Amino acid sequence: MGSYSTTSSSAQNSPKLVFRQLFEKESSTYTYLLADASHPQKPALLIDPVDKTADRDLALVKELGLKIIYAINTHVHADHVTGSGLIKTKFPGVKSIISKASNAKADLFVEPGDKIYFGDIFLEVRATPGHTLGCVTYVTGDGPNQPQPRMAFTGDALLIRGCGRTDFQGGSSDKLYDSVHSQIFTLPKDTLLYPAHDYKGFTVSTVGEEMLYNPRLSKDKETFKNIMQNLNLSYPKMMDVAVPANMVCGLQETKSEAC
């Protein structure tokens, strides 16, 4: 297990979390900006950045006086190209992060139980495969100096009143059901859920809401598997472009093993 951090002074008070939810309309992707404003360096990270909106996101980072240190992906996306590589070209000190199980390139690889520190705040890594083999959910820490209520960034594993498809990239409805129920639905019911996408205008849900009202994952496993097997979804239009690019941080050519 690993711990990834910046140099941090002892927190005298609870860390002040800066949080912004950003939207890319073409792929209906949410990017999340988090930072510890109480830390002298104001370290920040972006979860699931998109190449088309990277400049917008970096402009916001600058306006808020933050220091971007990590560009993080929940999984290898099939519907858009990640902005991780583009962000790294503009800010060479930024490190890209993805799960080791994804088999994609990055500067840092995380596994279940790892913690990603930005200042005195941290994200806990939980493996939530099923949409893809390498999906992870990032959860804010449990502790007196961590944001409350807790927040979970679920990628495509759990969407608001839905979930990611399981018919490509090593997907498995069986694994997805177990992932969500064991790694997300076991969090406190007031935990705020932030997905990688939404197509109906929803922005946030809670564990308690999804346990009750998710039309797929509130069912028993066999019913869920039957639902997923009969979605009859079309082939993702960006998949043949996005997946190869996202295996290398959104950059088709890299000069080293880390992108």
From TrEMBL:
Residue ranges of domain Metallo-beta-lactamase in the record: 28-197
* Pfam families referenced in this protein's UniProt entry, alphabetically: Lactamase_B
What keywords are assigned to this protein?
Metal-binding
Q: Where are the transmembrane segments?
A: none
Q: In which domain of life is the source organism classified?
A: Eukaryota
Task: Tell me which InterPro entries the record gives.
Answer: Metallo-B-lactamas, Mito_Persulfide_Diox, POD-like_MBL-fold, RibonucZ/Hydroxyglut_hydro
The identity of this protein, by name, is Metallo-beta-lactamase domain-containing protein
Q: Please give the organism.
A: Solanum tuberosum
